[in-house]
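Re: your question from the hallway

Yes, I did run it. Sequences:
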Amino acid sequence: MLAYIVRRALYAIPVLIGVNLITFLLFFVVNTPDDIARMQLGFKRVTPEAIENWKATHGYDLPYLYNEQADGLDSFTETLFFQKSVKVLAFDFGRSDAGRSISSDILERMGPSLALAVPTLIVGMLVNITFGLLLVFFRSTAIDWGGVVLCVVLMSISPLFYIIAGQYVAGKLMNLVPISGFDAGWDMAKFLVLPVIIGVVSGIGSGTRWYRTIFMEEYGKEYVRTARAKGLSDLRILFVHVLKNGMIPILTGVVVLLPLLFMGSLIMESFFGIPGLGSYTIEAINNQDFAIVRAMVFLGSVLYIVGLLLTDISYTLFDPRIRL
Amino acid sequence: MSRLNGLRLLVAVLVVLATGACNGPWNNPYPDADRDSDIYYSSFREPPRHLDPARSYATDEASFTGAIYEPPLQYHYLKRPYTLIPATATAVPEPQYLDADDNPLPADTPAAEVATSVYTLDIRPGIRYQPHPAFAKKADGSPRYADLSAADMVGITRPADFEHQGTRELRAGDYVHEIKRLARPEVNSPIFGLMSAHIVGLAELRERLEAARAELAPGESLDLTAFDFDGARVIDDHRYEIRVHGVYPQLRYWLALAFFAPVPPEVTRFYDQPGLKSRNISLDTFPVGTGAYMLTENNPNQRMVLEANPNFHGQRYPSEGEDGDRAAGLLADAGKQLPFIKRAVYSREQESIPYWNKFLQGYYDVSGISDDAFGQAINIDAEGNPNLTATMADRGMSLATTVLPGIFYLGFNLNDDVVGGLDESGRKLRQAISIAIDMESYIPLFLNGRGIVAQGPIPPGLFGYQDGKAGMNPVVYDWVEGEAVRKPLDTARRLLAEAGYPNGIDPKTGQSLLVNIDTPATGPDFKTQMDWMRQQFDKLGIQLVVRATTWPRFQKKIAEGNVQIYFGSGWMADYPDPENFLSQLYGPNGTAEHAGSNYANYSNDEYDRLFRQMRVMENSPERQAIIERMLTILRRDAPWQWGYFPRQYALYHQWLHNTKPNGMIQSSLKYLRLDGALRAEKRREWNQPVLWPVAAGVALLVVLLLPAVWIYRRREHSALRRRPR
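Structure:
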């Protein structure tokens, strides 16, 4: 397995270089260093001299990919791509165009994102798996039919509606929880109750249908018939045997997501005032802050690769037939 | 047994909830211990980018910088028109004029004969900085935190985390140091370009600093104390002078802005250390000042906290104001020591709906009114006056409105072949468009009435503005029965025909005249606005092409003169002087040719001559006469469709006192007073938990589960029945 992990890690290097290069090219196709300077310098009294000075003091006065003025290796290193993007490969994120330390910002924002995402994922999975199994249990009954219809209805509603309605009902009409906000330590619990519930409820429709499909397929297999023939109850068959055998497709979908939980949820964090990473990239794109954009795209790519690797490893844990 | 345990658990939960309810509202987003305190609660939408006084220029940053930094001058809190008074200075300085040989000239010397103006500022002794580690010293007098290692930084996330804090007296040299910082290349001060044209030697100082910077070793920082220059000079510990070229009376207004606040050299040396920068601890994040407040927490993604500066030198609440202030209770605290509020918590609210609901629950003390909430908060009566709705009035809120010293307009590029030029054709085309664009319908449609139609570039409240018939733009309006009425469309069509476009037809193409409008606005609201704008041009038979773009691209197009008409641009006053607005149309400020802020590239010799005359004058009837002449020229040439002056609406809860909206004072926090006990009482009253829907929900769930239980039991039962067979 170690050899497999090393091999996958080596494969990741060209992928990450490619991602970095594509991010760089795409960003600078749309934006110029002048645009970046203008965004940072604000709205009033922005002169060409100020723009040139800003570019010079922030390293945006270099050529993009090749420096004709430099000699030898410097032709490639004294460029915008090398100075701004290559260092990221060593996890040196540097400073944002607004002057803040990106590593520091990411570390600070990661905690709140995880505080919201982890309970939402765990509770959501438990609820969705339970509902999925129950729908299989009640298959071919009005409950199954009604459940599927309800799932489709729940899936059709915008997440934004859940958030606004949840805040209005629980936070404003019933005054049960704070409408938005965040705090450290145990105090964060009162701020997370509502977003976690909303996150779980808004995912029930799609999650339950997905799990129902998986479990329904499992339920049609020979071992289930054998189990029934041996006199096991339906509930035991579902919650013990079908659940265990259905774990592989579940893992495919879930484990790959685990590292990406760090990246947070844009809408949820924005509406609930949770100071996570969800809005970090979007804000950076809006502010045309290339330093943050390239750092976050790189981080997202790394986490996705880690997620895929973890998925592969987890297969071996649930299915002894699989060897890496 | 297990059922008994479950019952006990339920009782325990209920007891905990009940106890919680007794302690205060469940939806309180703040720590319970703070519920009766006099903490001021507000919010911010976008994190402040810069709190460094040499860089900060945005309005939302000013609520922090204005509370922390103390420039030598400030505006009187209550008086209108806005009046300068001393802050740390002993008096508002009068300039000493000098000739080319530095000989003193009398105060009434004509501006053309003045080579240099010298402003000498005396700083009150005994003013001390907020506690800060940059001032902490070792026993030998050297800075305690000069060479911070990685080990020293363990557990440090803000300056207050350092064990030793210090302070020292404010010195004149700190002001001079800050003026030098305006020229420091890495600082990128937005006013460097403007100030280098006025302050003697500032441009040369930038060149010297750039040369010195090139010689620095990596990681090294410039020490500005080693660079003297003529424009700002320390005379003694409590006195310094600023020298400007010629006459520049507006400098006094700049001296009330944070750009001219003191920054001690030891503070910049402290923040230049790499260990602090890597933790986002810098002058941009943790400012250091002598003001009434100090920033003790800066998490720009969550919360910023200001606390009263224990070393604040003291200021008393004003004992005079304008008419009506006493009746409004604004002088009830006259002569009392400031600040009243000891702590202010600003929470980040990115979305308007949760922000508004929390304000209604009493968790914010003051609020603006978003478009979504406008109908819920404000009723416009038959005469067009805003009033609070019954819901707001029942909660004891008060509404204050004020016209901000700013303008939003539609501009024409005077360099353009079609809409530009000072000839009859271009002028009449612009006049026709100015008449056709019906701002009287734009303001209620898109601003909920929060604006007043502009008759020229100078907003109300500033010298030079005139109300009524005297202030009307006669090119666009007629005075009918005591009010300005927009001229009929026929007048616009006649002007259009005289401009060479009868019925909007371009004789060169034989088709509708086609003009382009550039705007940085995007989003659904913008689309509606631009549809409306197209209709306005359609009235004249002119076809409008909308070119929406990002702000940087828009700026670039403006800089290159690559626009015909532009919209979505405006100007908010730096200071309350008409020069600040009239300079936006001064020829030598033309954007395309001179990289100035005159986006329209308007240039009229007579206007420019009058501008030069007006800008060096003190307010007087002579100055008013010149301004009126300038406005006449502007209205005739119509480089802008004058647009509107924004009106700010603010809602205050009943427990907040001494609130007076203003457009110039950077932070009014130190003047505010609040009644924490009343707020706690109202919060409790307004936020009682409503539990019956929870019980109803549980009951509904049980009802819904019954069929499932029935089916389950039937299935199990039928299986049992089948088994014997």
